[in-house]
Amino acid sequence: MVSTAKFWREQASRYNLEGTHCLTCGSYFFPPRIVCPKCRRDGNIERYQFKGTGDVVTYTTVYQAPQNPNRQTPYTLATIKLDEGPRLLSEVICEPEEIGTGMRVRSVFRKIGEEGARGMIYYGTKFVLA
Amino acid sequence: MIRLIGIASYGAYVPSYRIKVEEIAKQWNEDPASIKSGLLVEEKSVPDLDEDTVTISVEAARAAILRAKIDPKAIGAIYVGSESHPYAVKPTATIVAAAIGAPHSTTAADFEFACKAGTAAIQACMGFVSLNKAKYGLAIGADVSQSSPGDALEYSAGAGGAAFIIGQNQVVAEIEEYASFTSDTPDFWRRDLQKYPSHSGRFTGEPAYFRHTISASEALMEKTGLRATDFDFVIFHQPNGKFPLKAAKTLGFTSAQIKPGLMVLHFGNTYSGASLIGLASVLDKASESQRILMTSFGSGAGSDAFALRVTDLIESVREKAPKVEDFLSSKKYLDYAAYAKHQGKIRM
Q: Do A109 and B59 touch (CB under 8 A)?
């Protein structure tokens, strides 16, 4: 698990899928980039909140999880292509047999993890089948 | 222009997992038929392993924002009522604020008053909005209810919540008046650091639930001059199915008035969410000019009663976010062992 400070810095992205958008070339970035790799100094970057809908590109089901007492195996991780373009890795909340490539997903707000009984609880975005 | 204070938008959320009364009764050698007829509860909602009061509050609040296209930057107060805030110290309300994009100028706090903290949050938001301190106030009631294994509460303690955005003029339901009734009544409590609540058994009925619910409702009717027959719908706090039906009968309401908001049969007692999910369910069905009476109850004890009148705006926003009945269809059943894990009853 990441440190409390690092998680806090990435809160907008984790809670609200906040990334960036280059007004010059129209590209979208998640996680956010502060410089457009295509337009470089000609780029014009703005903050952008993704709609939270997309398609499953590929997925895997985890049966042997890293140590985390809240984990319920099996759980499914997927590469999701957001409708605006960027891809990200996220848990998809479903039974292993329910998911397939190309399926539509939408974002939901869930617990991502916690640092034991005394530590922080981390919240963020996961996906469900739409 | 007449200044109306009321509900500008609303949203509800109930987790998709359920456990049936039969499955719980099997563990404790109890007769499910007598429990079902005694409580009028068929099954109850259970949170997923990664759901808690924060995630339920956020989902309900996001639905409320979506329904009436509320600008989150215009929300000036956020109050979350619950008895299962995940932190003892660190507000649920700040996480909700960040997750809905509320501005840093928002004031926020968590409320606790057993099952009625959500309606206390509505009253606080009404004060805030009527003083023109903000365009909107967000009031939430949500819980992942805890109950001791084998206790009678275990058959009903569910999970869910509802969010209400309180505003002026552009409202789907005007809050015409409210009345409260509060007393120091020891019917149900949870001491600090204790995992499960305790209660006084049958004492939770007459001196607690019925006295407060009926007194607050009567005070409201006296204040407004409205009678039971003037309301199209009535919602009471729903610790089980029997109590609200009995309170309705005592006050002269019919089963046709109370049944549309009686969600406890399907979700169990969602504590701070219970009366508010009932109200959301009624707003999903109500038409312009219909009147609603909603009375919460929180142990310890108190009730807040509200007289609401639905406006014509309801028709244009109703379908824009999930309705309460949408949470009835998508459900997955758990056995007792999986339920115990979901509720944190198994310590790891």
A: yes
Range of the domain at B81: 5-173+321-339
Quick check: B188 pLDDT over 80? yes
**Residue B8 CA: distances (Å) to CA of B27, B37, B172, B275:** 45, 38, 6, 18
CATH, residue B252: 3.40.47.10
d(CA B200, CA B213): 18
* pLDDT number for residue B138: 98
pLDDT digits (tens, 9 = 90+) for B218-231: 999 999 999 999 99
Interchain CB distance below 8 Å, A121 and B54: yes
pTM of the full predicted structure?
0.97
Q: Does the residue B187 lie in any domain?
A: yes
- Tracing tokens 């952008």 back to the chain, one arrives at A48
B48 and A110 within 8 Å at the Cβ level: the answer is: yes
| pLDDT at res. A66 | 76
Specify burial of residue B314 (Cβ count, 10 A radius: 0-12, 13-18, 19+).
buried
* One CATH from 3.20.20, 3.40.50, 2.60.120, 2.40.50 for A52-129: 2.40.50
The predicted-structure confidence for B236-295, as pLDDT tens digits, reads as follows 999 999 999 999 999 999 999 999 999 999 999 999 999 999 999 999 999 999 999 999
DSSP reduced 3-state for B166 = strand
- Any CB–CB contact under 8 A between A121 and chain B? yes
Task: List the single residue in A with minimal CA-CA distance to B100.
Answer: A16
ipTM metric: 0.95
